[in-house]
Amino acid sequence: VGNSFVLACPPNSNIIMVTWKINPNVGGACTLGYRADQNKIDRTNCSDSINWKPRSDQDPALEIQQVEVTHEGKYICEVVTMDGNFDNQYHLTVLVPPTLTLSCDGEGNAVCEAAAAKPAAQISWVPERNSSLQTKSHDNGTVTVLSRFTADSTNLTNTTCIVSHLAGNQSKSITC
Questions:
Q1: Contact status, residue 115 vs residue 144, Cβ threshold 8 Å
Q2: What region holds the Ig-like domain (predicted)?
Q3: pTM recorded for the entire structure
Q4: How sure is the predictor about 162, in pLDDT bands with cuts at 50, 70 and 90?
């Protein structure tokens, strides 16, 4: 999420026409077309964040700026050349890193939250102790995971929450 991303299409010096067909999981389809004989680009229902990588006449790649979860879906590039027709198909999945918060509740338990991640984050604790886990799914496809580290009779000076996620791991420590 938030980064730019480029989808490649087979480059060829004999390009006659290139069409990107985009079918997002949410929302309507979008099409980008390029005709070399007219040096013309056509757009149908595409947001401003989806565009040709500069120089569509030499490289028919597609650039998505400021990637969002709504960009997920099927992307098909069709290239017509003097040598034949070629296509590439992609299924774009967007990773959303969690927002990590760590706090203490009123009973002296550490509470770790990995909010709005896609896919859901995994939470573990150091030292390992009893913990409870709650998950909440959101309409935009993200998931919040909350873990409560159960305090016991021993006096722990420091507790660390470790959040594991495909977009990167994080950790925070707290004394409750």
A1: yes
A2: 60-175
A3: 0.76
A4: very high
